[in-house]
Amino acid sequence: MPIFVPGQRWISETEPELGLGIVLSVENNRVTLLFIASSERRTYAVNNAPLTRVRFSKGDLIESADGWKLKVTEVKEQNGLITYEGVDEDGTPRTLEEVELNHFMQFNRPQDRLFTGQLDPSELFRLRYETLQKIGQLEQSPVRGLIGGRTSIIPHQIYIAHEVAHRPSPRVLLADEVGLGKTIEAGLIIHHQLLTGRAERVLIIVPEPLLHQWLVEMLRRFNLRFALFDDERYWQFEHGNPFLSEQLVLCGLDFFMDDEERQEAALAAGWDMCVVDEAHHLQWSEQNASPEYQFVERLGRSVPSLLLLTATPEQLGKRSHFARLRLLDPDRFYSYDRFQLEEMQYESLADVVNHLLDDPILDRETLSQLKSLIAHDLAEDLLNRLDDPERAESARAELIQLLLDRHGTGRVLFRNTRATVKGFPGRELITHPLPIPEAYRRLLAETQPEIEDLLHPETLYARHAKEDTPEWWRLDSRVEWLAKTIKSLRSAKVLVICAKPQTAIDLEEALRIRGIRAAVFHEKMSIVARDRAAAWFADAENGAQALVCSEIGSEGRNFQFAHHLVVFDLPLNPDLLEQRIGRLDRIGQTETIRIHVAYFEDGAQGVLFRWYDQGLNAFSQPSPAALPVFNRLGSELAALLRVPNAEEEIRLIERARKLAHAIEEELHQGRDRLLELNSCRKDAAERLVRLIEATDRENDLWPYLEDVFDAYGVAVEEHSDHCYILRPGEHMRTQFPELPEDGVTVTLDRGIGLAREDMQFLTWEHPMVRGAMDLILNSEHGNAAMSLVRHPELETGQLLLETVYVLECAAPKRLQIGRFFPPTVLRFLFDQDGNDLSALPFESLVEQPRQFDREQALELVRSRQKLINRLIQNAEKKARARMPSVISDSTKRMLDTMTTELKRLAALRRVNPNVRQEELDQLKEQAIEMSNCIQGAHLRLDSVRLLVAV
Ligand SMILES: Nc1ncnc2c1ncn2[C@@H]1O[C@H](COP(=O)(O)OP(=O)(O)OP(=O)(O)O)[C@@H](O)[C@H]1O
């Protein structure tokens, strides 16, 4: 039984965070301690107090309550109290009574805990080591950040996410064709940036109808909890900047418009990343930049990372498209004229790139083309490397990257198409030409209709309606046809899209009267009402059969569970038509899409239908030529819509067809080929997919988690194959991350995770798993242990010390030093004679179930304290010896990256006067700063284990 004397210093084994305790009194077999650092008092039974006596040894450096330090040379004990003798920092001999020791001393360093007998079970040491190892592995994994999403692994998405997420501050335009998964790509990138600490504060801005969809997608697919900011939420804040109250914020674009104060608040809120969906709405021209554009432009300047998403980047004009590219990379996209000039050279550029990709030897002509293309690019070394068989392959890859970036479509633009992604179900066009109602014919003849009126005569009719005239939908034959069509489809879901919100409202009423369960969805409804309507439509059993949407209302929404689309009226802009079809024709669509189009055969609607069908072939697949053809022949089309003429129409449609064909050919040879190469390299994408699939198959997560759950007292119950129910156990040590009181069902299988959204899909990147790893490493759990082990090369009784060091580099967050210097784990094993046995793998030391008795253990540690200290010094020496090579490797990696960046900027500066010298200087300074941080990397002893061989 320990003997307690008032004035002695002890620490609590169960609550080491209390600091150094002092014995106040010992009475009736009870001892009372005061922990001055935490102002706590504790009383224990003397015979089983969970306390460890603090006793320093010769050579230790200790601190007094007054703050001076003593190097101990002698330890004396009298009447149960210790006096330390030694010298202070000035070399003056002094003594320190134990009662005068610093009350705030912490004993959570591994060696402190070992010497004070705070030993953890060996399993915790193992768990700690495995956690460190795994974190190192995960940090190095090329697919880090991309495995944790509840998503199918789709090559083009993974390629883009990988390519973009690894840039230090990504600024890109995600412009895949409609429905190919831009939201998912953005989610993967955000997930990666948050997980790797490259971003902490993210703002997503989307059109209001998409708020809920984004909120849900981020949560259910990526476990990211965005806070939705609307008027109500915003007004709750009376003081301070509301945006500072959350790290992840989702807002509608309209939320900012007409409200300068909100814009200023958002601009002042210090985001790391900003995402803007449906970015084609950011209209720009030299004379008139839209308020939306101006706002995002200001945001873009203040935020390091910017993701813009649009399926139809040129919908509001090529200049707007260019303006958005400039917003992302002003150094590369500085002149519209030059941008256009470059476009003209895309074909020959693509030709050179193709040769670089395919030809084992470059012919003279290609070489000279290549030389002239990169004349200003500071890339002579790459050209020289082409002749070196060892380095030619990497030189080719770098040259292709350089050509795409500096002369092609640029590294900021990603666009995948159905033609390259493949595997989408087909489309079937079902047409319903109708005669134009007499009332419309008369009205159009009597007025001077605009094209809008010609295409939407119901709006003209409504404008001229008198009190006693019937509503338009009572006489419009399309409405009758619509009702019949929907009824004939019985229970199949039908999405109806028309241009105007009022048309959608009227149609819903018309359908309701005819007994059809239809919901309506348009921009004039509140967000809640819209989401309710969409949910009612999505409900497979009791939901609405039809959803009538306006153009803007339907943009970006996921309706692929429906297979029938009714195009109630045709838009003039072909991108809008593609957006409409894209509601159904998107990833996840399982059937052929039936596109029903009704139109009035005589007149503008008929002309427009034939233009789309025969001229642009726009119903069967998206055509990259549709918009350019419309831009070139649009005025002639408009004339024909005003005054239809059969012969003229045939001629115009023929011209459109030929032009579309020619443009498609040209784009195919030039721009699209470059875009394709930039947007998804098949081999690289497949490599990444294979890596993710291999990670999914590795099966090392569950065994690890079982150990964690066991160590922390989480109860596990089998649910079914690969699925488990987790609950707080009776002996749970501490609050376990992401584990609700009433438990949670989890799966480790991606297929099940995709199908069963009621289960959590656990991966190494799931918040519960990351939380568990943090729990282990942020505490001292397992940092000091003692084990009996068996190994054929060890002799019974042999004493060994296992030490685990972590080599870390501290740097300001903005430098993202982890890219070049992830924490490095170094493990050493020495025996009592100082022999280095580190080559014996961790797993080969077989632990014996017999544990040390605590008193025995403490005695062994104390009696061997000198030896242990010496072995720790040996290990530290070894660890230090490894530091230079780790430091020089990461310095080299950093310098290679920064040099490429510097060269790029310098080359751009030669052609673009807007690239400022300061930008180059900044990059150089950054490189120097990073180099200093890397040089200052430090070693930390993470854990120790004393081993006795048996
Ligand atoms: N990898 C994936 N795994 C599972 N579902 C996916 C995946 N990629 C996309 N989807 C689903 O496919 C649909 C289309 O994806 P998403 O909304 O990201 O496309 P988009 O390109 O943003 O569309 P739009 O052009 O209409 O804005 C969504 O329902 C999405 O959940």
Automatic annotation (TrEMBL):
Recorded coiled-coil stretches: 646-673
Helicase C-terminal domain location: 478-631
Residue window of motif DEAH box: 277-280
Residue span, Helicase ATP-binding domain: 163-331
Gene3D superfamilies named among the record's database cross-references: 2.30.30.140, 2.30.30.930, 3.30.360.80, 6.10.140.1500, P-loop containing nucleotide triphosphate hydrolases, Tandem AAA-ATPase domain
Binding site for ATP: 176-183
Record-level Gene Ontology MF annotations: hydrolase activity
Transmembrane parts of this sequence: none
Source organism superkingdom: Bacteria
Keywords: Activator, ATP-binding, Coiled coil, DNA-binding, Helicase, Hydrolase, Nucleotide-binding, Transcription, Transcription regulation
Family matches, as InterPro entries: DEXDc_RapA, Helicase_ATP-bd, Helicase_C-like, Helicase_RapA, P-loop_NTPase, RapA_C, SNF2-like_sf, SNF2/RAD54-like_C
Pfam families named among the record's database cross-references: Helicase_C, RapA_C, SNF2-rel_dom, Tudor_1_RapA, Tudor_RapA
EC number: 3.6.4.-
Self-association and partners: Interacts with the RNAP. Has a higher affinity for the core RNAP than for the holoenzyme. Its ATPase activity is stimulated by binding to RNAP.
PANTHER family recorded: DNA ANNEALING HELICASE AND ENDONUCLEASE ZRANB3 FAMILY MEMBER, SWI_SNF-RELATED MATRIX-ASSOCIATED ACTIN-DEPENDENT REGULATOR OF CHROMATIN SUBFAMILY A-LIKE PROTEIN 1
Function field: Transcription regulator that activates transcription by stimulating RNA polymerase (RNAP) recycling in case of stress conditions such as supercoiled DNA or high salt concentrations. Probably acts by releasing the RNAP, when it is trapped or immobilized on tightly supercoiled DNA. Does not activate transcription on linear DNA. Probably not involved in DNA repair.
Record-stated family: Belongs to the SNF2/RAD54 helicase family. RapA subfamily.
NCBIfam families per record: PRK04914.1
Protein name (Swiss-Prot/TrEMBL): RNA polymerase-associated protein RapA
Organism, as annotated: Methylocaldum szegediense
